[in-house]
Design brief:
- GO terms for molecular function: tRNA (guanine(26)-N2)-dimethyltransferase activity; tRNA binding.
- Belongs to the class I-like SAM-binding methyltransferase superfamily. Trm1 family.
- Dimethylates a single guanine residue at position 26 of a number of tRNAs using S-adenosyl-L-methionine as donor of the methyl groups.
- It comes from Pyrobaculum aerophilum (strain ATCC 51768 / DSM 7523 / JCM 9630 / CIP 104966 / NBRC 100827 / IM2).
- The protein is an alpha/beta fold and 363 residues long.
- It has 2 domains: 4-273, Rossmann fold (3-Layer(aba) Sandwich); 297-361, 2-Layer Sandwich (Phenylalanyl-tRNA Synthetase, Chain B, domain 1), CATH 3.30.56.
- The protein is 39% helix and 25% strand.
- It is built from 14 helices and 15 strands.
- The strands form 4 sheets. The chain has a 7-stranded mixed sheet, sandwiched between helices. Strands 11-10-12 form a 3-stranded antiparallel sheet.
- Strand 14 and strand 15 (338-341) form a beta hairpin.
- Helix 2 runs parallel beside helix 3 (66-75), helix 5 (112-118) runs parallel beside helix 6 and helix 6 crosses helix 9 (183-201).
- It starts with a strand and ends with a helix.
Length: 363
Amino acid sequence: MRHLVLRREGGVKFYAPDPEKYGGIYSAPVFYNPAMEKNRTLSTLLLKAYGKGGLVVCEPLSGTGVRGIRYAVESGVVGKLILNDISKEAVELIKKNLEINGVDAEVYNEDANVLLHKLKDSCDVVDIDPFGSPAPFIHGAFRALKEEGLICATATDTAVLVGRYPRKCLRRYGSVIVKTPFYIEVGLRNLLGYIARVAAAEDYKITPLMSYWEGHYFRVCAYAARGARDADDNFHHIAYIKYERGVRKILHAQSEGSSGPLWVGPLGDPLIINKMSEIGPYQDFLKILAEEYSISAPWFYRLPEFAAGGKSPTLKEAVGVLRAAGIYAVRTHMAPDGFKADGEYGEVLMAFKRYISSAHSLQ
């Protein structure tokens, strides 16, 4: 392949197409997105914090192979690496990048779903990192998984997941989404809800370890364990949300104006996130995630929802007011003016009203 540039990311070096020669990354013969470095770094930390060695790791949509190579070089837990791409040019580049990093891997030139079905019951980790939606590959990912393991998926079709394209959202994820101020969380839980339903169909129970939003994508990593009876537990965390005048109502059946089906259970595990923050970068971001995951209630709030006289409290003030009122509250990574609170909308609103009334009485 012509027009390659040598790049470095994390602890590896690799060749990727020179975007200047191809008019951008989306026109290059093999896709590599430097904006996903944080995604790859956090996922590498997660594998390391997961704490199990000798893992069989499969990345069926490998592109340049950088994600899988980073897993092998940096995590210290990969026993066998399986890389694949349907593009012959990508496969050639993957082999080149494996060689310069001294990494061994099985490399395939297959349709991703064909490979995943061939790998039935043989993988500890399956990481779906497509250009667009992971939905077409989730069934195959569970088929390739052993009795237990990790399922990771990236979705860049965020506009679909948040309901901007209702028909496509219904076709692709089987969900109906209504716009809300916390639409980012709805989109993330939409993706998780889809993965949970597919998991149940494949007789797996899932436990999210890390789920987050970052600008142009959603990312989910979940522990999965096989067992038909336990798989039913997924549906204990599937529901609908209805938003009316600030109130977030969780419903167990669809009704007019509701969004769903969505995952309403935990978004992640604060313990594993804290482990990640101890061994790698992005500590501030991981701290926010760990705090968010410590609150079981879904749906974040936004400061303008509680504005009085055209003014909103600062985020720091809002968190302080709620904690003083006995309502645990933390920042959310999903909006700069957003916070999670372990309380219903009415309780949060009343706490702010008392604070505003008290402030006025002191003037």
